[in-house]
Structures are given as structure tokens and as C-alpha cells.
Amino acid sequence: MSLFDKFATQRALQAALGGDGRVAALATPMDAVHSATSATINGRRVLLAGTNNYLGLTHDEACRAAAIAAIQTQGTGTTGSRMASGNYAGHRALERALAEAFGWPAGIVFSTGYQANLGMLSALAGPGDFLMVDADSHASIHDGCKLSAATTIRFRHNDPVDLDRRLARLGEDTRRTLVVVESLYSTLGDRAPLREILELTHRHGAWLLVDEAHSFGVFGDRGLGLCEELGLLAEVDFIVGTFSKSLGGVGGFCVSRHADLELLRMASRPYIFTASPAPPVIASTHQALRRVLAGADLRARLRAHSERFYREVAALGYKLGADTPGPVAALVFKRRESAQALWRGLLDAGIYTNLMIPPATPAGLSIVRISLSAAHSDEDVSRIIAALDGQIETLRVSAAAG
Amino acid sequence: MTTTTEPGAAARVESAVREALALIQPAAAGLDGDADLTAEAGLDSVQVMDLIMEIEDRLDLSIPVETVAEARTVNELCAGILRLTVRA
User: Is the pLDDT of residue A168 over 80?
Assistant: First the structure.
């Protein structure tokens, strides 16, 4: 009996996915990253098409300059929590800028996007409260529920009727219920029916938190996300976001139209018991936020790429995880071997994508996920589509299509 | 807690659990009540979630994630769900 016995599944998967001496499909080793769209893997230059770097801001010149300047003046790290020595002017300024962007009174910065959900859900919902979460939520939401002393109930993915039924069962307790959804689900690229969910959540007297991790920067006139695009900002209670997608850094945030959000600073363990983000991260993120707010040009470019990609890839015969085009394009397969063969074929053709397999995926699907970026050129998008075209025959032979 | 259950509640819960199990994992339909749901019935975490949703539909109640996490066997799951119906 060993502590490692319980990892038999992981051991088998590790062997199946990279045990043959070829480049591993999970945790693929990057030798070097050259730009938002280019890296070297296994000694070869590849085009990056699986990085969530939707606006390409990791390599924006002004963002990089801001990070370098912050290191020169403030050092490399804060070595302290926001509750102790890590509460710098830069952290507070970024929080104000985020809250003001939404026109709301309060904003809190967390050290990672994962901690933003962990810190919000665990602190906001306590003993006797209820967390009502979409069944296909990101791990950070499920883990936030686990850390919370509240009762957690899951509703069927993107199903307002099911949510309505579950809220009705709670009766008066809906007043102490937080409904949690993502606006754009990153595995399949599908969107929540936000308007319906908001309407019925408030009709039942419950509260709504929307995670805009993959939609912040991408949707809305000012890039604030799908709630902005749908005109829902006056009613949503909390919006959570991340710095590590469109903003090109690392960290997370929550903003709210309720000024009492501020109280969570005294109660949220994932906020309190960790070091605050390093000065260069805060500086580059703040600069990236300015670029996002004025980034209609980047969003238009990304939208054009997404629409073209969805149209042409569907025409090739691939099955996509969502109907509405967006920056996440999930090519779905029933068999893991088919997805794996496509992932490897694309890498051999010089394109890096993401392989996602059960149990990390919904409905037992295996997925090759492609994320598009405003930093991709039209030629880059053509190259990805051409590579997908080139894999069709291989897939047919290897799987009789999965 | 007083435990005045409606007559037949336990049987109703168990038959809902069995029906749902047969749907999600047909091979596990006749599973022993004390058998482990993940190790012996071979359900992964996603299948357990699907199983719970099927049971919820049949019984018209919401089963908290915590109730599921505490139950390792069919019998424990039935007992946990029965406690919910008593409370309600």
C-alpha cells in the first residue's frame, strides 16, 4: 500500500499521452516563447493557437515597458499579503480602475484567477447559505464551493429551466443564494443564456456572480465582457475576471455594484493568506486594462478571425463545440484517439493547440481546442485552417471519424 | 432530529437511485448496496454528477454536492438522500 497507489489512472494516462518518447500532449514543454503567437517546441518553431492570449497583450510594448519600470522602482515582489506589507499604491490604483471601468463602487484584486473564484465563493457564501452553480463550471468554482461552508447545488449546464426549478425548491432561502455561472465556457466555447439566468435569479430574489474569465477583453464596446455586450451591467451583482487571458498577466479580480464587497477583504482566506501580486504584474496589467478599454481595433480583428475560422472549419466537416463563433474553437470527438491523432498531426504541421480529455471535459468528449488571437495575422489563420484540412484524411483513416 | 419518514420513502429513494444507476452505468444496475460507487461500479466524477442529476429529476429534489461527497456506496447515498427528504 503506497500513497501513490491512488494515481493508477494518472499513471496510465501519462503513458498513453507521452510515454512513446514523442512530445507530450499535456504540459507540452515549450523550449522558448518568442511572441504571442510563436514558440519553439522540440527544437521547431511553431505557431501558437492554444494560449488564451486573445488580444496578444503578453508582448505589447507598452505593457512590457510598464512591467520593467515597476521592477526598476519597486522591485521584483511584494513579499507580503495585502493585509500586511503588500498593499502598494499600484494594487489600489488597479482596483479603482477596474471598478470605474464597470461604473461600480468596489473592486478587489486577487493573486490568481483561480483564487478570485476561490476567494469570492468561499467568503461570500457561509453556513446556511446556498451556492447554485452550473454543472460544467471551471475547477476554481467547484473548489470555491468546497472551501465554502455553504450548501452547494449544481444545475444542468446552461439550462435556465433546471435552474428555475432548483431555485423554486429553495423557497425563502433564495435570498441567501448565490447563483454562479461563466459567460463563455472555455472547454466547448459555448455561452451562458445570461439574460434568462439573470432574470430568473432576481425573480427568485437570489444573487448572481458571472465569471468573465474568457470573455473580458473580447466582448462589449469597451471589452468588459458578455454582460456589457448584452446590456446587463446595471443588474449583475458580481463579475469575476482574470488577468491571465486578455490582460496577458497573472492574477484575478472581482468587481461589484455592491460597495460592501470591500468587507470581503477581512474575510476571504485566499485573499488574505497569500502574497499580493508582484509590482511588474500589477503595472503591466494596469497598462493592459487601458489597452483593453480602447481596444475596439483588437476586438474587431479577433471577431473577424473567429467568424472566418468557425465558418471554414465547419465547412471542412469538423464538429465544433459551439454554434456562435468566438475566440475559443473546440473541435469535438467521441474517441480520445481521434483527438489525440489530430493534436499530434497539427503539431507535426507546426501548429500548437490544446488537447482536452475526460474526465476534465463534459459528456466524455475529447477535444482539440484552438484559441484565436488578435495577434494572429490573416496568414496565420489560413495556416491553421490549411493544417486542419490536411488532417481530415488522417482522421478518417485512423478512426472512421470519431 | 425527529425522523418520522413517510411510509415507503426509503423504498422510493432506493428505486430512484437504482433506476438512475441503470441508466448511467447499465453494468452496475444490480450493484451490491455496500459496493463502492467509484471503485466497484466504475463511475468517474462526471458520471457521478450525471447520476445525481437523474436521481434529482426522479425525486424532484436538489441533492447538495456535500451529500454526494459523503456517500461512497449506494446504501450511503440512499441514506443521505433520505435525510434530505426528512428535513424537507
Answer: yes
Pick A225 or A6 by higher pLDDT: A225
- Determine the Cα–Cα distance for residues A289 and A295; give it in Å rounded to an integer: 9
Distance of alpha carbon A49 from alpha carbon A31, whole angstroms: 16
| Nearest-CB residue to B65 (from A152, A170, A364) | A152
| pTM for the model | 0.94
- A152:B53 CB<8 A: no
- A220: pLDDT strictly greater than 90: yes
DSSP string, A228-253: HHTT-TTT-SEEEEESSSTT-SS-EE
Kindly indicate the confidence band of residue B47, based on its pLDDT and cuts at 50, 70 and 90. Answer: confident
Is B61 an interface residue toward A (CB < 8 Å)?
A: yes
Q: Are strands A130-134 and A38-41 parallel, antiparallel or unpaired?
A: unpaired
Least Cα separation, residue B66 to chain A (angstroms) = 7
Peptide bond into A359 cis (omega under 30): yes
List residues in chain A touching B: CB distance below 8 A.
Answer: 135, 145-146, 151-154, 156, 166, 169-170, 358-359, 362-364
The answer to whether the CB atoms of A135 and B49 lie below 8 A apart is yes
Res A85 pLDDT > 90: yes
pLDDT band per the 50, 70, 90 thresholds, residue A400: low
Residue A32 CB contacts under 8 Å (≥ 6 apart), including other chains: A39, A40
User: How far from A194 is each of A182, A201, A307, A345, B41, CA to CA, in Å?
Assistant: 9, 10, 21, 37, 37
Smallest Cα distance from B1 to chain A, Å: 17
Which ipTM was obtained for this model?
0.84
Record: contact B62-A153, CB cut-off 8 A: yes
Q: Is A268 a catalytic residue?
A: no
